[in-house]
Amino acid sequence: MKYDIKDLSLADKGKLRIEWVDQNMPVLQLIRQRFEKERPLQGVRISACLHVTTETANLMRTLKAGGADAVLCASNPLSTQDDVAASLVKHYEIPVFAIKGEDNDTYYRHIHAALEHQPMITMDDGADVVSTLHAERKDLLVHVIGGTEETTTGVIRLRSMAQNNVLGYPIIAVNDAQTKHFFDNRYGTGQSTMDGIIRATNTLIAGKYVVICGYGWCGRGVAMRAKGMGAKVVVTEVEPIKAIEAAMDGFQVMPIAEAALIGDIFVTVTGDIHVIRKEHFNVMKNGAIVCNSGHFNVELDLDGLETITTAKRMIRDFVEEHRLTNGKCIYVLGEGRLINLAAAEGHPADVMDMSFANQALSVEFMLKNAKTLEKTVYAVPEDIDREIARLKLEAMGVTIDVLTEEQKAYLVSWEMGT
């Protein structure tokens, strides 16, 4: 079995962590049990490009239980948990190509290694596998039935490909499932982003101005958690409706040019490029902390920052000090990559349970329906979304009401008035 990981001797530690997390992923457990009996993915080659974490490990175990022949590479150079990668190789015999801190060349070499598997299904988190496949390995498209995409940034890229008629196969936007973005993006990103900032810096959040760039589901989550920790939250936005929502949620809303002057901690969660630029870094307070929780580090104009930096040093793990030409110091966390995975452990398992349940069931759906699907981006079927929500409620011990026959009839009728 081919693989490329940091150290196989870390495997036993990784296995314990995988098992610990599995206890908090009851929906995925139920799917795995069914997959073991039915084997709906028998013989299907899957190339997955995801964050190599304990939660992802349990998704990979579920795919293998369903009969899949799966390989895994990292979707971010700093998000890999090396002990988890080792355990997947040693204990579960799943090929992994991922090393925490790998350089850009190694990152893409690993993506190519995953593509050598000649996937029938691609699983992406950021669309790097899909874009590499279409740009450099079109010869492999003949094998591909369909794919899934985990994150907002990837869905944006894939919809662009579909609109330009270059997408070679159908893809399900797992990110857009209600049981994904309502919970993973909001509660998962919110908690894990603040966790990453605190682990990296040990700074006090209370009383500080926390500037959040973007008020999508991830931004809402970060704002909620920062406010709960006593921060004075400022939101920057380009969408009027989201800006109104942020204002009515009680946050200050202003342009980034104004927020740069007052912020103590900056978090980008937009999915766009160069949200914080050179001119913004240049006017920040001495000691300002800057990080990103969007998928790619391009949200920060790090090249622009370099042009006004006179000296750099790693002052703590994942904390790089930039001394600027104006004499101030700015601190960039985790190389501008996903702070929740660079400096912490990513989303809690409880919320990834639903996200990865969507992944597993979407792969099953794709295999059953790919022949009837066009080469575009599809939403997760509503019945899958609802079933995952039902199973999660059941696992949480929460019961809900059931419509009476009278209520069902009323909701589909037009004769009954007030």
Automatic annotation (TrEMBL):
<comment type="pathway">
    <text>Amino-acid biosynthesis; L-homocysteine biosynthesis; L-homocysteine from S-adenosyl-L-homocysteine: step 1/1.</text>
</comment>
<keyword id="KW-0554">One-carbon metabolism</keyword>
<dbReference type="InterPro" id="IPR000043">
    <property type="entry name" value="Adenosylhomocysteinase-like"/>
</dbReference>
<feature type="binding site">
    <location>
        <position position="340"/>
    </location>
    <ligand>
        <name>NAD(+)</name>
    </ligand>
</feature>
<feature type="binding site">
    <location>
        <position position="180"/>
    </location>
    <ligand>
        <name>substrate</name>
    </ligand>
</feature>
<dbReference type="GO" id="GO:0005829">
    <property type="term" value="C:cytosol"/>
</dbReference>
<feature type="binding site">
    <location>
        <position position="184"/>
    </location>
    <ligand>
        <name>substrate</name>
    </ligand>
</feature>
<feature type="binding site">
    <location>
        <begin position="293"/>
        <end position="295"/>
    </location>
    <ligand>
        <name>NAD(+)</name>
    </ligand>
</feature>
<dbReference type="InterPro" id="IPR020082">
    <property type="entry name" value="S-Ado-L-homoCys_hydrolase_CS"/>
</dbReference>
<dbReference type="InterPro" id="IPR036291">
    <property type="entry name" value="NAD(P)-bd_dom_sf"/>
</dbReference>
<dbReference type="GO" id="GO:0006730">
    <property type="term" value="P:one-carbon metabolic process"/>
</dbReference>
<dbReference type="InterPro" id="IPR015878">
    <property type="entry name" value="Ado_hCys_hydrolase_NAD-bd"/>
</dbReference>
<protein>
    <recommendedName>
        <fullName>Adenosylhomocysteinase</fullName>
        <ecNumber>3.13.2.1</ecNumber>
    </recommendedName>
</protein>
<feature type="binding site">
    <location>
        <position position="125"/>
    </location>
    <ligand>
        <name>substrate</name>
    </ligand>
</feature>
<comment type="similarity">
    <text>Belongs to the adenosylhomocysteinase family.</text>
</comment>
<keyword id="KW-0378">Hydrolase</keyword>
<feature type="binding site">
    <location>
        <position position="150"/>
    </location>
    <ligand>
        <name>substrate</name>
    </ligand>
</feature>
<dbReference type="InterPro" id="IPR042172">
    <property type="entry name" value="Adenosylhomocyst_ase-like_sf"/>
</dbReference>
<feature type="domain" description="S-adenosyl-L-homocysteine hydrolase NAD binding">
    <location>
        <begin position="185"/>
        <end position="346"/>
    </location>
</feature>
<dbReference type="GO" id="GO:0071269">
    <property type="term" value="P:L-homocysteine biosynthetic process"/>
</dbReference>
<feature type="binding site">
    <location>
        <position position="53"/>
    </location>
    <ligand>
        <name>substrate</name>
    </ligand>
</feature>
<dbReference type="Pfam" id="PF05221">
    <property type="entry name" value="AdoHcyase"/>
</dbReference>
<keyword id="KW-0963">Cytoplasm</keyword>
<feature type="binding site">
    <location>
        <position position="237"/>
    </location>
    <ligand>
        <name>NAD(+)</name>
    </ligand>
</feature>
<comment type="function">
    <text>May play a key role in the regulation of the intracellular concentration of adenosylhomocysteine.</text>
</comment>
<dbReference type="GO" id="GO:0004013">
    <property type="term" value="F:adenosylhomocysteinase activity"/>
</dbReference>
<feature type="binding site">
    <location>
        <begin position="151"/>
        <end position="153"/>
    </location>
    <ligand>
        <name>NAD(+)</name>
    </ligand>
</feature>
<feature type="binding site">
    <location>
        <begin position="216"/>
        <end position="221"/>
    </location>
    <ligand>
        <name>NAD(+)</name>
    </ligand>
</feature>
<feature type="binding site">
    <location>
        <position position="185"/>
    </location>
    <ligand>
        <name>NAD(+)</name>
    </ligand>
</feature>
<feature type="binding site">
    <location>
        <begin position="214"/>
        <end position="219"/>
    </location>
    <ligand>
        <name>NAD(+)</name>
    </ligand>
</feature>
<keyword id="KW-0520">NAD</keyword>
<dbReference type="Pfam" id="PF00670">
    <property type="entry name" value="AdoHcyase_NAD"/>
</dbReference>
<dbReference type="GO" id="GO:0033353">
    <property type="term" value="P:S-adenosylmethionine cycle"/>
</dbReference>
<feature type="binding site">
    <location>
        <position position="347"/>
    </location>
    <ligand>
        <name>NAD(+)</name>
    </ligand>
</feature>
